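Structural prep section.
Before we set up the soaks we want a predicted structure of the protein with adenosine-5'-monophosphate-propyl ester in place, mainly to decide which crystallisation condition to try first. Input record follows.
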Amino acid sequence: MTSAPELPTTYAPTAEFAAAANAGPELAERARADRLAFWAEQAERLHWDRKWTDVLDWSNAPVARWFTDGRLNVAYNCVDRHVREGRGDKVAIHFVGEPGDTRDLTYADLLAEISRAAHHFQSLGLVPGDRVAVYMPMIPEAIITMLACARLGLTHSVVFAGFSPAALRSRVDDAEARLVVTTDGQFRRGTPAGLKPAVDEALSAPGHTVENVLVVRRTGQDTPMTAGRDHWWHDTVERQPAEHTPESFDSEHPLFILYTSGTTGKPKGILHTSGGYLTQAAYTHHHVFDHKAGQDVYWCTADIGWVTGHTYIVYGPLANGATQVVYEGTPNSPDEHRHFDIIDRYGVSIYYTAPTLIRTFMKWGRQIPDAHDLSSLRVLGSVGEPINPEAWRWYREVIGHGDTPIVDTWWQTETGAIMISPLPGVTAAKPGAAQTPLPGISAQVVDEEGNPVVLGETEANGYLVLDQPWPSMLRGIWGDMERYQTTYWDRYAKQGWYFAGDGARLDPDGDLWVLGRVDDVMNVSGHRISTAEVESALVGHTGVAEAAVVGASDDTTGQGIVAFVILTATTENTGDTLVNELKAEVSREISPIARPREIHVVPELPKTRSGKIMRRLLRDVAEGRELGDTSTLVDPAVFTAIAEAKGD
Ligand code: PRX
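Run finished without errors. Recording the C-alpha cells verbatim:
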C-alpha cells in the first residue's frame, strides 16, 4: 500500500523573490530595536504639512494620539502628491463595470473628479467634522466621494449597498449625517436594481439629519427625486471647477466611521483618524503585498462597504501610487470566468481576496482558472476568516501556479490595517496560519487571566490580545466611548491590553493561528454578523416568540447562520411558508448576507438556570455533534424535543 505523498508544512520564499522583495529580515530587527522610531520612519512615507512633535501620546489610554500636532491632508497624499511628482498620467483605477463597461482613471483624472466633488460638497455648506453617508456600489464615484470627504475633513460613513433601508437609517442617525451620496441603482448579476428607493425609504420617517441626497446615475433607472433635497451628480459635481486647494488637518482628525457588528444588536461605529491610519495603511500595503509602484497591477476584490475596501482599495494603494483594478460585480457575472478574465486582461500581479471565494472557485473547478493566463500573478492575499490549509494549497497551486507567496492577513475593522501576516520574501509560509505580528506590531496569545500560553510540544490555545497601541487603531466607538472601554479594554484592564475577540493558538514554532471569534459574532463569507442582530430581526416577526441564532461551520462560507425559533401560541402560520417568510424578513431587516441558512421551529430553547440561552449547545446541535456539558441546563430533555423538530 502506498501512502499519500506528504505535503510540505512550510513554503519558503524563493531566493529570487526574497532578493527583490520590499521587506527583508532587517525590518523586524529595526522595529524591535525602537518601535516608535520605526513607526516614525513609516510615517515619512507620507507628505506632512507640519511634522509631528510626538510619535505616540498614550497618556489618555485607551485613546491613542499618533503623530501628535502633525498636520496633513489625506486626499493630497493619495492623489495630488502623485500628480505633482509627475505621475499624473499613470492609471490609478482600471474600472470594470458589471455589464462589462470599462473606464480608466489616471491620477490626474482622479484629482480633477475629487476636486469637483469637493467644491460641490463645500457649496452644500458642509464643514470639517460633518458626516457624509456613502451608500453606493463599487464605482469610481464611490472612491471619489470618500476622497473628496477626506480632502475637506468631512468624516465619511460608508454603508454597504447591500444593507437594508432600516440598516442605512440607523447608521445615518447614529452618525447624524448631513449628506447621503448614492446611485440610482446597482447591477445584480446583470440586472439593474434600484438603490435610491432604499434611501428614500430610509429617510421617509422624519427626525433625521440629512439635508441633501446626491445621486450618481449608474443604471439609468427611473428615479423620483425629492425637490430641494435630491440632486444629480452630473448636474452638480460635474459643473464644478477641476482645481481645488486642499487644507491640512490634524493627524487625529476623524477620517471615517465604519459600522461593524458587535455582541449586541446595535452596530458599533468604529472611528478612525488620519495620520496614524494612513501611515499603517501605506506601510502594510507596501510590505505585505510587496507592492512596487510602476510595476504591479493590484486588485483587492473587497467592497468599499467593508474595512478591507477602505484600507486596501482606497487609502493604502492610492497612498502608494498603485495602479489597481476596481470591479463592480460578482465573480460569476456573466459567468465563473470573470475574475480570471480580468487578471489575464489587465495583467494583475497582486490579488487579494477572501477564503470563501477561494472555496467557491474550488467548487467551480480548476478548469476555469486553467483556461486563462494567470502568469502575471506574483503575490496572493487572503483576509476575513481563517483559511483552511486545503484552500490555501489550492490557491497557491491553481491560481498562483505553484510558486506564488500567499499572505494570510489577520486584522479587523477596529485595527484599521493588517496586523498579523507572513511577509512575502521573508516568512516561510504555513498554510492556515497568519503566523507573525508585522514589524512594529505586538500581539500575544494569553489565557483568561492574561498569562501567556506556554509553548510546548503541543499547541497552546488562548485569546488574541494586542499589547501595544498601533497607529491605525480605532480611536473609539462613535458616540459611545463607554462601550469602547467595555468591549475592548475591560477584559484585560489590569494589563492595559486590547482584546480582539478572537481565539488563537501558538504552535510549537511560535507561529500564530487565528481560530475565529470567541464572542457572539458570526463570520459568514468574511462578513461579521452578530447573533443578537439576527435574533432581533426574527423576533420582529409576529409569529416568533423567541429566537436563538448560532454560526455553524459551513464548507463554503466559513460559517452559516442557523436559527432556532419558538412560535407564538396564536400563530397559525407554520412550516415552510413561515421559514421562508422569516428568512426573507432577516434579508429585509438587515441584508441578504444575514439570511439564515436554516431555521428550525422548536418547542423550547436550552437555557441555564439564570435564563441564558446556551448557544454553545445549540452550535453542537447545528453541527450535528455530540452535546457538550449539559449539567447547567434547567431541563436537559429539551434536546430530545429539538432533535425531533430538527428531524435528526
Ligand atoms: O475573526 C477575525 C476574522 O474577521 C474578524 C474581523 O472582521 P472584520 O472587522 O469584518 O474585518 C474583516 C477584514 C479585515 C476577526 O476578528 N479574520 C479576519 N482576518 C482573518 C480572520 N480570521 C482568521 N484569519 C484571518 N486572516
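Observations: The radius of gyration is 24 Å.
Flagged for discussion at group meeting.
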